[in-house]
Amino acid sequence: MAKHLTVRGEHLRRALAQEAARVMAEHGIHDFLTAKRKAAERFGVSEGGLLPRNTEIEEALAEYQRLFGGSSYTQSLASRRRAALTAMRRLAAFSPRLVGPVLSGTATRHSDVQLHLFAERPEDVTLWFLEQGIRHEMVTRRVKMNAERVLEYPGVRFEVDDIPVDATIFPTDGIRQAPVSPVDGRPMRRADAPEVEAILATAC
Fold this sequence. Notes:
By secondary structure, the protein is an alpha+beta fold. The chain has 6 helices and 5 strands; from the N terminus they run H-H-H-E-H-E-H-E-E-E-H.
Protein backbone atom coordinates (compact mmCIF):
# COMPACT_ATOMS: atom_id res chain seq x y z
CA MET A 1 0.00 0.00 0.00
CA ALA A 2 2.81 2.41 0.93
CA LYS A 3 4.54 1.76 -2.39
CA HIS A 4 1.27 2.36 -4.23
CA LEU A 5 0.83 5.67 -2.45
CA THR A 6 4.41 6.64 -3.24
CA VAL A 7 3.94 5.91 -6.94
CA ARG A 8 0.63 7.79 -6.93
CA GLY A 9 2.31 10.69 -5.17
CA GLU A 10 5.09 10.81 -7.77
CA HIS A 11 2.53 10.81 -10.60
CA LEU A 12 0.63 13.64 -8.91
CA ARG A 13 3.86 15.57 -8.35
CA ARG A 14 4.72 15.28 -12.04
CA ALA A 15 1.21 16.34 -13.01
CA LEU A 16 1.52 19.38 -10.76
CA ALA A 17 4.87 20.26 -12.36
CA GLN A 18 3.34 19.98 -15.83
CA GLU A 19 0.36 22.13 -14.85
CA ALA A 20 2.62 24.76 -13.27
CA ALA A 21 4.70 24.78 -16.45
CA ARG A 22 1.57 25.22 -18.58
CA VAL A 23 0.45 28.14 -16.42
CA MET A 24 3.85 29.80 -16.79
CA ALA A 25 3.94 29.28 -20.55
CA GLU A 26 0.38 30.34 -21.32
CA HIS A 27 -0.31 33.03 -18.73
CA GLY A 28 3.03 34.76 -18.42
CA ILE A 29 3.58 33.89 -14.77
CA HIS A 30 7.27 34.06 -13.89
CA ASP A 31 7.14 33.21 -10.20
CA PHE A 32 7.49 29.50 -9.47
CA LEU A 33 5.60 29.67 -6.18
CA THR A 34 2.59 31.35 -7.80
CA ALA A 35 2.56 28.74 -10.56
CA LYS A 36 2.75 25.93 -7.96
CA ARG A 37 -0.17 27.36 -6.03
CA LYS A 38 -2.32 27.67 -9.12
CA ALA A 39 -1.49 24.08 -10.10
CA ALA A 40 -2.25 22.83 -6.59
CA GLU A 41 -5.55 24.69 -6.57
CA ARG A 42 -6.60 23.12 -9.84
CA PHE A 43 -5.75 19.62 -8.60
CA GLY A 44 -7.19 20.21 -5.14
CA VAL A 45 -3.85 19.54 -3.45
CA SER A 46 -3.22 21.05 -0.03
CA GLU A 47 -0.25 18.95 1.09
CA GLY A 48 2.94 20.95 0.63
CA GLY A 49 5.09 17.83 0.43
CA LEU A 50 3.52 16.93 -2.91
CA LEU A 51 4.46 20.21 -4.57
CA PRO A 52 7.20 19.89 -7.21
CA ARG A 53 10.61 21.53 -6.89
CA ASN A 54 11.41 24.52 -9.09
CA THR A 55 13.87 22.38 -11.05
CA GLU A 56 11.08 19.92 -11.84
CA ILE A 57 8.88 22.75 -13.09
CA GLU A 58 11.70 24.13 -15.23
CA GLU A 59 12.20 20.69 -16.79
CA ALA A 60 8.46 20.42 -17.41
CA LEU A 61 8.45 23.90 -18.94
CA ALA A 62 11.25 22.97 -21.34
CA GLU A 63 9.31 19.82 -22.27
CA TYR A 64 6.11 21.83 -22.74
CA GLN A 65 7.86 24.24 -25.07
CA ARG A 66 9.29 21.37 -27.14
CA LEU A 67 5.93 19.62 -27.42
CA PHE A 68 3.58 22.55 -27.93
CA GLY A 69 5.72 25.53 -28.85
CA GLY A 70 6.61 24.43 -32.35
CA SER A 71 8.29 26.80 -34.76
CA SER A 72 6.72 29.84 -33.10
CA TYR A 73 8.52 29.01 -29.85
CA THR A 74 11.83 28.46 -31.67
CA GLN A 75 11.47 31.76 -33.50
CA SER A 76 10.43 33.63 -30.35
CA LEU A 77 13.41 32.31 -28.39
CA ALA A 78 15.81 33.12 -31.22
CA SER A 79 14.36 36.65 -31.50
CA ARG A 80 14.89 37.22 -27.80
CA ARG A 81 18.45 35.94 -27.96
CA ARG A 82 19.20 38.17 -30.94
CA ALA A 83 17.72 41.14 -29.09
CA ALA A 84 19.87 40.24 -26.10
CA LEU A 85 22.99 40.13 -28.24
CA THR A 86 22.16 43.48 -29.85
CA ALA A 87 21.70 45.06 -26.43
CA MET A 88 24.89 43.47 -25.11
CA ARG A 89 26.93 44.80 -28.02
CA ARG A 90 25.58 48.30 -27.48
CA LEU A 91 26.21 48.09 -23.74
CA ALA A 92 29.67 46.54 -24.08
CA ALA A 93 31.19 49.20 -21.79
CA PHE A 94 29.22 47.68 -18.90
CA SER A 95 30.34 44.04 -19.37
CA PRO A 96 26.78 42.76 -19.95
CA ARG A 97 25.80 39.19 -19.12
CA LEU A 98 22.64 37.38 -20.22
CA VAL A 99 20.78 35.49 -17.50
CA GLY A 100 17.42 33.83 -16.94
CA PRO A 101 14.97 31.97 -19.20
CA VAL A 102 16.25 33.46 -22.47
CA LEU A 103 19.64 31.99 -21.69
CA SER A 104 18.37 28.64 -20.36
CA GLY A 105 15.96 28.20 -23.27
CA THR A 106 12.75 28.10 -21.22
CA ALA A 107 11.59 31.61 -22.16
CA THR A 108 7.93 32.01 -23.06
CA ARG A 109 6.40 34.64 -25.30
CA HIS A 110 5.89 36.69 -22.13
CA SER A 111 9.54 36.60 -21.03
CA ASP A 112 11.75 39.69 -20.90
CA VAL A 113 15.40 39.53 -21.82
CA GLN A 114 17.29 39.70 -18.51
CA LEU A 115 20.75 41.25 -18.39
CA HIS A 116 23.27 42.03 -15.67
CA LEU A 117 25.34 45.19 -16.14
CA PHE A 118 28.39 46.30 -14.15
CA ALA A 119 29.33 49.91 -13.53
CA GLU A 120 31.27 52.02 -11.04
CA ARG A 121 28.14 54.13 -10.60
CA PRO A 122 24.57 53.39 -11.74
CA GLU A 123 24.48 56.96 -13.01
CA ASP A 124 27.02 55.95 -15.67
CA VAL A 125 24.41 53.64 -17.20
CA THR A 126 21.67 56.26 -16.92
CA LEU A 127 23.89 58.84 -18.62
CA TRP A 128 24.70 56.40 -21.42
CA PHE A 129 21.01 55.89 -22.18
CA LEU A 130 20.39 59.63 -22.14
CA GLU A 131 23.32 60.28 -24.47
CA GLN A 132 22.14 57.58 -26.86
CA GLY A 133 18.61 58.94 -26.82
CA ILE A 134 17.17 55.53 -25.96
CA ARG A 135 13.82 55.49 -24.22
CA HIS A 136 14.15 53.75 -20.89
CA GLU A 137 12.75 53.45 -17.40
CA MET A 138 14.83 53.29 -14.23
CA VAL A 139 13.63 50.70 -11.72
CA THR A 140 14.76 48.99 -8.51
CA ARG A 141 15.30 45.23 -8.26
CA ARG A 142 15.54 43.03 -5.17
CA VAL A 143 18.25 40.43 -5.76
CA LYS A 144 18.81 37.32 -3.65
CA MET A 145 22.55 36.87 -3.15
CA ASN A 146 22.28 33.85 -0.83
CA ALA A 147 19.80 32.22 1.53
CA GLU A 148 19.99 35.08 4.05
CA ARG A 149 21.00 38.09 1.96
CA VAL A 150 18.69 40.06 -0.32
CA LEU A 151 19.96 43.36 -1.74
CA GLU A 152 18.39 46.14 -3.76
CA TYR A 153 20.05 47.22 -7.00
CA PRO A 154 19.03 49.78 -9.60
CA GLY A 155 17.91 48.56 -12.96
CA VAL A 156 16.85 49.85 -16.36
CA ARG A 157 14.09 48.70 -18.69
CA PHE A 158 14.11 49.36 -22.42
CA GLU A 159 13.26 47.65 -25.70
CA VAL A 160 15.21 46.19 -28.58
CA ASP A 161 13.15 45.42 -31.68
CA ASP A 162 9.96 45.62 -29.58
CA ILE A 163 11.31 43.02 -27.14
CA PRO A 164 11.48 44.20 -23.51
CA VAL A 165 14.88 44.10 -21.83
CA ASP A 166 15.29 44.27 -18.06
CA ALA A 167 18.85 44.99 -16.93
CA THR A 168 20.01 45.00 -13.31
CA ILE A 169 23.00 47.23 -12.55
CA PHE A 170 25.65 45.80 -10.20
CA PRO A 171 28.89 47.36 -8.94
CA THR A 172 31.91 46.42 -11.05
CA ASP A 173 33.06 43.80 -8.53
CA GLY A 174 29.60 42.22 -8.67
CA ILE A 175 30.77 40.32 -11.71
CA ARG A 176 32.64 37.97 -9.35
CA GLN A 177 29.58 36.78 -7.46
CA ALA A 178 26.36 35.90 -9.26
CA PRO A 179 23.05 36.04 -7.39
CA VAL A 180 21.38 32.74 -6.65
CA SER A 181 19.06 31.26 -9.24
CA PRO A 182 15.35 31.14 -8.36
CA VAL A 183 15.30 27.68 -9.93
CA ASP A 184 17.86 25.76 -7.89
CA GLY A 185 19.37 28.23 -5.42
CA ARG A 186 22.83 27.91 -6.96
CA PRO A 187 24.83 30.81 -8.42
CA MET A 188 22.98 32.06 -11.47
CA ARG A 189 24.43 31.17 -14.84
CA ARG A 190 25.68 34.22 -16.75
CA ALA A 191 26.73 34.37 -20.39
CA ASP A 192 28.77 37.07 -22.11
CA ALA A 193 28.25 38.20 -25.71
CA PRO A 194 30.55 35.59 -27.35
CA GLU A 195 28.70 32.83 -25.49
CA VAL A 196 25.35 34.15 -26.70
CA GLU A 197 26.73 34.33 -30.24
CA ALA A 198 27.78 30.70 -29.96
CA ILE A 199 24.36 29.66 -28.69
CA LEU A 200 22.67 31.40 -31.60
CA ALA A 201 25.09 29.85 -34.09
CA THR A 202 24.49 26.37 -32.67
CA ALA A 203 20.72 26.78 -32.83
CA CYS A 204 20.77 27.81 -36.49
